[in-house]
Prior knowledge:
Helix content: 55-70%
Structural class: mainly alpha
Strand order of the largest sheet: 1-2
Radius of gyration: 25 Å
Order of helices and strands: HHHHHHEEHHHH
Number of strands: 2
Distance between the termini: 31 Å
Amino acid sequence: MTPSSHTRERHKTGLIGGLALLFLVTTPLLADETWSLKPLVRPAPPSEGNPIDAFIEAKLVAAGLARNDSADPLTLLRRMTLDLTGLPPTREEIRNSKLKTTDPGEIKQEIDRLLASPHYGERWGRHWLDVARYVQGTIKVPGVAAIDLAEPYRDYVVRSFNEDKPYDRFLTEQLAGDLLRPEGEPELARQEHLVAPAFLSIGQWFDECTDPNKLRLDIVDEQISTTTRAFLAMDFACA
């Protein structure tokens, strides 16, 4: 006997209720065991040395190891430049560098210069583009020769990093930029808001799916998965 629509609806409601109860029962246990669900705390650094290096020093001491000697100014310049721009310093940058010693003031001045470089956004924006599953050019998807017109979103991410855009604003623009319409907003900013939500649409391509309803659900599921993994450090796909 085929169940009626009313019976199916009752079964579905009961299943959803059971899953919700299971989630509520298990969530406290997960919160106790999963580091990503624990409240943030500010640990007290060891009493000596740089607050960052002090933690490394404590681990070295516990392992019975000694740290290396401090880097000389040229080595430090090379490391900072590679880390912040992805490129080694040029000869001109080495000649003009104000980093003549390892004085904290000179180091800060050199870091500020590197953070002001356009290469900073190009280097560190790539990490966010990985999170956003950015792709362009030729891809191995049947029926799709290449992905184009993705560059505006890439450029938006690079500009956001170089402009030191607040993180909450960066996220809001990508989730609902097309809905942001503050009065007196420059036209360039309006265009940025229209480009930013490409975060939701530049992901996987379901070219072989011929069922429009399944295609719609697959796309929504993929968007939920990417959004929750990017912003919440957990995956809600198929939840």
